[in-house]
Amino acid sequence: MDGLVEFRTADGAVVTVEAAEERSGSRLVSRGDGTVQAARTFEGALDGVRAAAESALRVFRDGSLKPDGVEIEFGVKLSAEAGAFIAKGTAEGHLVVRLTWSPAAPEARPAS
């Protein structure tokens, strides 16, 4: 298991997550229980992923396909220093996009 990281939310709640392994040469100092305090809030850590999701939604909503629904799934990893980042599922980044269309409603027939 990678280490545990505590993120604080904007309202002060604590979110503890299993963190991705840090690749840098430096090591973070953890408490006696092995938990590291994150450098930013939970919301702050997710800012980059939120921006990526908003950008991806614009691409699919504003294009020529005009789906009724768009679902975007990111695999997200959290780290004490880097915050949140899109995780790789295999050799590439993990991203699943589902576009849905509802069948057109039948047109009303005029009464005879």
Distance between the termini: 72 Å
Rg, nearest Å: 21 Å
- How confident overall, as mean pLDDT? 77
Shape call: elongated
Provide structural commentary.
- This protein is of the alpha+beta class and 112 residues long.
- The strands form three sheets. The protein has a three-stranded mixed β-sheet with strand order 2-1-3, with no helix packed on it. The protein has a two-stranded antiparallel ribbon with strand order 4-7.
- The protein is elongated.
- A hairpin with a 3-residue loop joins strand 5 and strand 6.
- It has one helix at 42-61, and strands at 4-8, 14-18, 35-37, 69-74, 76-79, 83-86, 95-100.
- The chain contains one helix and seven strands; from the N terminus they run βββαββββ.
Record the SSE blueprint.
Elements: E1 4-8, E2 14-18, E3 35-37, H1 42-61, E4 69-74, E5 76-79, E6 83-86, E7 95-100
Parallel strand pairs: 1-3
Antiparallel strand pairs: 1-2, 4-7, 5-6
Short description:
By secondary structure, the protein is of the alpha+beta class.
List key phrases describing it.
112 residues, alpha+beta, three-stranded mixed beta sheet, two-stranded antiparallel sheet, 1 helix
